[in-house]
From TrEMBL:
UniProt-listed SUPFAM superfamilies: 6-phosphogluconate dehydrogenase C-terminal domain-like, NAD(P)-binding Rossmann-fold domains
InterPro entries found in the cross-reference section: 6-PGluconate_DH-like_C_sf (IPR008927), 6PGD_dom2 (IPR013328), 6PGDH_NADP-bd (IPR006115), HIBADH-like_NADP-bd (IPR029154), HIBADH-related (IPR015815), HIBADH-related_NP60_sf (IPR051265), NAD(P)-bd_dom_sf (IPR036291)
Keyword NAD: yes
The keyword Nucleus is assigned to this record: no
3-hydroxyisobutyrate dehydrogenase-like NAD-binding domain mapped to chain residues: 165-283
Organism: Chitinophaga dinghuensis
Keywords attached to this entry: NAD, Oxidoreductase
A GO molecular function held by the record: NAD binding
TM regions (residue ranges): none
Domain 6-phosphogluconate dehydrogenase NADP-binding residue range list: 3-158
Pfam families cross-referenced by the UniProt entry: NAD_binding_11, NAD_binding_2
Protein name (database record): 3-hydroxyisobutyrate dehydrogenase-like beta-hydroxyacid dehydrogenase
Active site: K171
Length: 294
């Protein structure tokens, strides 16, 4: 049993924190909206009033927040001093690789280890502990936090080396490929529908033979059933943020990514129409609307 700090109880953070508590770990949790943290008290969590209060000297704190700015705001001098020599900050957020590298360098000034561990999972997969983790950073702290990832959400853990930003590069690549797959499916299902083919039959054939991965099976079903708005597991605004980071990383490394530009425009169009309750799978509406379908 470990004492762990956990900061950020959104759609992903909440089930991961709950799993850690169910596994017997002691958690001090912080969330900007305190009400969201209250259900975890029944599982034994201690609610604290600031990110620094979630830390203990030489301990472990996980952060899972929306963007680079939120991580930077948390990882201030007070927070790093509270973690202190030998402490570990496990950053599970999807952020810029450059930000991760800068944070890792800044943490070292306080003797704090920084491990990047972005989450590959939708909330239901995290809750079932069948998600995937990619980790990067120094070897010893990575080994020390493996149990946390396994108890929290991860069926598989992939170590991509010592450079802090590497895990975030892979996370951005993964999200780019998911978004591109949604565009691929949307265009394909539209072509099927406009040519009189039973789209459900096409979906079943394709996702049980050539394209059997969960991205095609799960997101394909959402596109097929037009499950675009309501209670998003991953908001379109966050999807747009991630594709912005993909394009930023591509620009800095002189990497042409025309498909990334396309899915970026699809997501931007979704948000331009005021669909604030849209899941990022709503990017599929671009191909549907372009073809004159609804």
């Amino acid at each position: 049993m470990q004492k762990i700090g956990f900061i950020g109880l959104g759609n992903l953070g909440f089930p991961i924190a709950a799993n850690l508590l169910k596994a017997g770990h002691q958690l001090k949790v912080y969330n900007r909206t305190r009400e969201k943290a209250k259900p975890l008290e029944k599982l034994g969590a201690i609610l604290v009033d600031s990110p620094a209060d979630a830390a203990e000297k030489g301990g472990i704190v996980c952060t899972l927040v929306s963007d680079d700015a939120a991580v930077r705001e948390i990882a201030n001098e007070q927070f790093l001093q509270a973690l202190g020599q030998g402490g570990i900050h496990v950053s599970m957020s999807t952020i810029s690789p450059d930000t991760a590298n800068e944070l890792a360098s800044g943490h070292k000034q306080y003797g704090v280890h920084y491990v990047a561990a972005p989450v590959f999972a939708r909330p239901e997969a995290a809750e079932a502990k069948v998600g995937n983790a990619v980790i990067s950073g120094d070897a010893a702290p990575k080994e020390r936090i493996r149990f946390l990832l396994e108890d929290g959400f991860a069926k598989n853990i992939f170590d991509v080396g010592p450079k802090a930003g590497s895990a975030n590069v892979l996370k951005l690549i993964g999200n780019f490929m998911i978004a591109s797959s949604m565009e691929l499916m949307a265009e394909s299902f539209v072509l099927a529908e406009k040519n009189g083919l039973d789209v459900k039959a096409a979906y079943e054939m394709l996702t049980t033979t050539l394209f059997t991965g969960p991205v095609f099976r799960n997101y394909g079903a959402m596109i097929l059933n037009r499950e675009f708005v309501g209670n998003p597991a991953f908001k379109a605004s966050l999807g747009l943020k991630d594709i912005d980071l993909v394009l930023e990383t591509a620009r800095r490394s002189y990497t042409p990514m025309p498909m990334a530009n396309l899915v970026h425009q699809r997501l931007l169009t979704v948000l331009s129409k005021g669909r604030r309750d849209a899941d990022w799978v709503a990017l599929a509406t671009g191909a549907i609307n372009d073809a004159g379908l609804k």
